[in-house]
Amino acid sequence: MYKKGTEILKRFFKTSTIYKYGFNWSPMYRRTTAKLIEVSDDLLFIKIRIKPNWKNRNYAGTIFGGSMLSATDPIYMIQLIQLLGDDYVVWDKAVKARYKKPGKATIYGEFVFNTEEIEAIKESVSTHHETDITKTMHLVDAEQNIIATFNKTLYIANKQFYKEKLAKRKTNK
Fold first, then answer.
1. What is the signed CA dihedral for 77, 80, 82, 83, rounded to 10 degrees?
2. Beta strands at 45-50 and 146-158: parallel, antiparallel or unpaired
3. How many beta carbons lie within 10 A of that of residue 16, not counting itself?
4. Which neighbouring-strand residues pair with 36?
5. Whole-number Å distance between alpha carbons of 91 and 89
6. CA-CA distances (angstroms) from residue 71 to 88, 128, 159?
7. Of 28, 87, 113, 118, which alpha carbon lies 20 to 30 A from 156's?
8. Rounded to two decimals, what is the model's pTM?
9. HSE of 150 in the Cβ direction (CA atoms, 13 Å)?
């Protein structure tokens, strides 16, 4: 549904605009209490904001760690899907969360790729058909104090290789 909607909307809007408002209006992402506040036209940079409110406060009155994790969870995967294009499969594989300080005020997170990383991913997939990468991002307060750190592992594969891999898995059952 989202992919088909995006293809239709691309006729009228920039991909970055669709990405930003698509996330912010999506019921699943809205429930995280986060909001995308900046998306670069090339999709290499995304910034989110999480404001404390009654929906995301824990027993201690700070931002619930689950809200922080869910707010960061889908961004890298969908960002990379858009950056790599239709010849690739991208899946979230793992995340390691480290909560360092209570989130008492509004917090921010940035998701950044550069063109060299994207080319290195494409080269690795071209050579090995699949690869894992790990990206680290921090949620910070207005003074840049680190509130939480997430190490996100993503699986990337050549789409044709991935389909063949799944087919083999089904026949081996």
1. 170
2. unpaired
3. 19
4. 48
5. 7
6. 24, 31, 27
7. 28
8. 0.89
9. 27
